[in-house]
């Protein structure tokens, strides 16, 4: 039995943050019923086309596999009646509209709670269900800008976006944590609860250590690029004669081991590099020296020698190389999903931790693929 087996999720989400949440709930065993507008479907279906697959973008497929799709027009009497029935039989409802949209459709939290007092309602939005900015819209890069994250990534004074939907995704994961906590409370009290997840809050949660530093010093931390937290050249990315290598010699014993691996044990006693403060002070000289020492190395060979010596290190890989690494294969992180209309399946990332998650092939739903099936379960006659 998987952890959330027997839990039904009414999924009113779209784009990235909400579907990321409901994907993980499905991977934990919940029955996720995804509600989509007829014909149009989730807008993310049209994010981009791969191989001519209309209404089936691969990014959409990656975060919606394993769900059941029901096409409902929530402005029609039939659509509202079907959603009522789902809510009454559901355990969790997840939505990521702007605050107030669901209420204007006739499904305020009070009405949802009247239909099902045990319902857990999770709402993901840009700025939350309360506060002066609650009505603002947001995308991932808007939250990056508002939170200070973009300035942390600045290069030569120019703010930079992080190139993946990091806040969208993390907001979805925070929603899962909140939902699980609310379900635990429901088990104890018999009552459902509300979970309010804001993308801006999620961004600041990611930057908790930076926020703490600012609160203590009064100075907003500047971006450090590849230097990272420790600000030393022995924990950066470097080119080699073939490929790039990430060094992770942060602590004294790791730095000394690094010099041994590179055949320069004499540097252990070099006063410029002998201690952490000295290495920070002489950063430019130290980095130039490491560049020279690595210029004749191959990244793949260096990775093996460094890790054998107990130094955290990794050759830089692209996402495909990472996914096919024997370690990732052994961990079972990647599962497969069938894509309707495609001549091949796709890789879908599992929950990200080892628990009794299914490794069977998953199916990405077409718009309304399960409408008749779910209506029958609810005792409703099909329409249209």
Key terms for this structure?
three-stranded antiparallel sheet, 384 residues, alpha/beta, elongated, six-stranded parallel sheet
Note down, in words, how this protein is organized:
The chain has 384 residues and is an alpha/beta fold. 39% of the residues lie in helices and 13% in strands. The protein contains 17 helices and twelve strands. The strands form three sheets. The chain has a six-stranded parallel β-sheet with strand order 3-2-1-4-5-6, with helices on both faces. It has a three-stranded antiparallel β-sheet with strand order 7-8-9, covered by helices on one side. It has a three-stranded mixed β-sheet with strand order 11-10-12. α2 (58-62) links the parallel β2 and β3 (68-71). α1 (17-27) packs across α8 (166-189). The longest helix has 24 residues, at 166-189. The model has no long low-confidence stretch (mean pLDDT 94).
């Amino acid at each position: 039995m998987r952890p959330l087996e027997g839990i039904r999720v009414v999924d009113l989400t779209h784009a990235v943050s909400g579907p990321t949440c409901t994907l993980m709930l499905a991977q934990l065993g919940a029955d996720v019923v995804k509600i989509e507008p007829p014909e149009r479907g989730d807008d993310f279906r049209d994010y981009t086309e791969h191989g001519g697959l209309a209404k089936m973008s691969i990014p959409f497929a990656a975060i919606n596999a394993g769900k059941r799709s029901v096409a409902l027009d929530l402005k029609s009497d039939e659509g509202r009646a079907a959603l009522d029935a789902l809510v009454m039989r559901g355990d969790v409802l997840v939505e990521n509209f702007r605050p107030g949209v669901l209420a204007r459709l006739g499904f305020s939290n009070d009405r949802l709670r009247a239909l099902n007092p045990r319902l857990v309602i999770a709402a993901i939005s840009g700025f939350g269900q309360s506060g002066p900015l609650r009505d603002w819209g947001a995308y991932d890069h808007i939250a990056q800008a508002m939170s200070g994250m973009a300035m942390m990534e600045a290069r030569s004074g120019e703010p930079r976006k992080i190139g993946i939907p990091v806040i969208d995704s993390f907001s979805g994961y925070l929603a899962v944590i909140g939902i699980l906590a609310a379900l635990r409370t429901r088990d104890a009290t018999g009552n459902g609860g509300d979970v309010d997840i804001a993308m801006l809050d999620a961004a600041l949660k990611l930057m908790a250590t930076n926020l703490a530093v600012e609160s203590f010093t009064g100075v907003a931390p500047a971006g450090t690029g590849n230097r990272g937290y420790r600000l030393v050249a022995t924990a950066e990315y470097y080119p080699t004669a073939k490929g790039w290598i990430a060094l992770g010699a942060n602590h004294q014993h790791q730095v000394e081991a690094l010099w041994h691996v590179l055949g320069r044990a004499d540097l252990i006693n070099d006063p410029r590099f002998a201690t952490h403060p000295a290495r920070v002070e002489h950063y430019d000289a130290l980095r130039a020296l490491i560049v020279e020492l690595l210029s004749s190395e191959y990244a793949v060979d260096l990775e093996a020698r460094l890790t054998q010596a107990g130094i955290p290190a990794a050759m830089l890989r692209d996402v495909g190389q990472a996914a096919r690494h024997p370690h990732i294969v052994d961990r079972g992180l990647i599962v497969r999903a069938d894509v309707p209309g495609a001549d091949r399946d796709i890789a879908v990332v599992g929950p990200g931790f080892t628990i009794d998650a299914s490794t069977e092939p998953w199916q990405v739903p077409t718009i309304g693929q399960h409408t008749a099936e779910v209506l029958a379960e609810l005792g409703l006659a099909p329409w249209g």
